[in-house]
Amino acid sequence: MPTATYAGKNVDVTEEGFFTDPNQWTEDMAPQIAVAEGIKELTGRHWQVIKFMRHEYEETGTGPTVRVLGKTSGVTIKELYQLFPSGPAKTAAKIAGIPKPRGCI
Amino acid sequence: MRKRIVILGGGTGGTLLANRLRRLLRKGAVEIVVVDSDDEHVYQPGLLFVPFGLTEPENLTRLRHRQFRRGVIFRHGIVDRVDLAQDIVWLTDGASLVYDVLVVATGARLLPGETEGLTGPGWNKKIFTFYDRAGAAALKHALSAFDGGRLVVAVMDMPIKCPVAPLEFSFLADWYFTERGIRDKVDLTFVTPLDGAFTRPVASRELGGLLKDKGVNLVTEFNTGEVNGRAGRLISYDGREVPFDLAVIVPLHGGQAYVDRSPGLGDALGFVPTDERTLQAKVRPNVFVIGDAADIPASKAGSVAHFEGEVLAKNIGRYLAGEPVTACFDGHANCFIESGFGKALLIDFNYDTEPVTGRFPGPVGLPLLRQSRLNHLGKLAFGWLYWHALLPGRQIPMVGSAMPRTGKHLHEESR
After folding, report:
1. I need a surface site. Which of B10, B272, B352, B411 has the fewest CB within 10 A?
2. Residue B223: CATH number of its domain
3. Smallest Cβ distance to A72: which of B199, B268, B298?
4. Considering Cα of B224, then B11, then B89, then B277, what sign does the dihedral take?
5. What is the pLDDT of residues B205-231, one digit of tens each?
């Protein structure tokens, strides 16, 4: 299994770079993961989404889809795309250290 | 005292479950009431064929109350809300139904109004959906008048009912325009929010290959933010555009409105959080869910409701007897995929096993993930089975609730 190093610690990730064990994630890793996703500055709005992703993962066992994020995170889908231009659900999940959102079958 | 099971929704799941439970439980011990807002049962898999003139909406519709066994009570009414603390269903006419067991079987609702512009200029003129009878019938006229240009088939977002239907529509459109001799004048494009043609890797590769063979363009990871009917464009949230002359849209889906009005029952989209194995709602032990209304990671499809029915009838029987609900649903889904020119593919999968090639239900059965005439005949035969085996809640010979592994090329699995 591939590993990555964030904030000086080795963590397990998938081929696509998603954490396999969310417990390995700490907040100080987020800025470095974000840079790799092309986001140089994490604003308060970014953090609101990241914390919401963590919360939802703990509650439901999967990260929310962008549509659910738009309904429940307090950030509209349009703004979510401004914050995470390459796809909010996936990118925010990656930065939040949770597995790739399962989405729907 | 006689117990009462109230089933909300008399569609595929609600009907087949009511009939299974009626056979399983003594009439003197348990009353079964099904609530629905109308008396028309639509065979939804048939809607796909309406735009191509292969069937008519009237052929797909039968009286809802006629699909129940004797002893099932059909109650005409609209659900206002469920009071989970008091075990009461309130109807909009003010009536209240007390239950011992509640089954949510009200499926998914189409929400075209939730996509900006979708129901604005051009709706039902150059922008259609075939997911309801009126839309499918209107699209038939638009297709027959279409003599060239850009036809786009677009899924707004998951989850949707019958995730293969938009692919089937694309395949059939290729066949339809070929038959009419104008295929070279039609530019076909399939637009999806997924990263491939389908949700699981092997099927995504095979079905993506089929789109390519048929000359259908594939646009992936496209989350439609706006449909502009005047300009004839789909616009994604990340600013990409897909132009169209005729758009066939699968709208956003959600649960029924009463779910939103019932505190604690549904999630943000109105689907009911459900244990994916026991089919018990997470909110209350006396609430169960069948079919599209559940939030479980299975396809929203009639075959899934059928396979769930076998498990759920057992679990409800056990719950009423005070026993633990141990029957286990494996996520089994089975879908024919019409591919045009009298052929179809078949996929068979569950939570743990993605669709692969091979044969179903065993080594000498129907070919999986491969086009064949046999599968097309299977798809047509399914219409008869739906009314005469699925809805009455009967077993289909050799096809049980648990997904068969024999006959499948399981080494193909990507994980």
Report:
1. B411
2. 3.50.50.60
3. B268
4. negative
5. 999 999 999 999 999 999 999 999 999
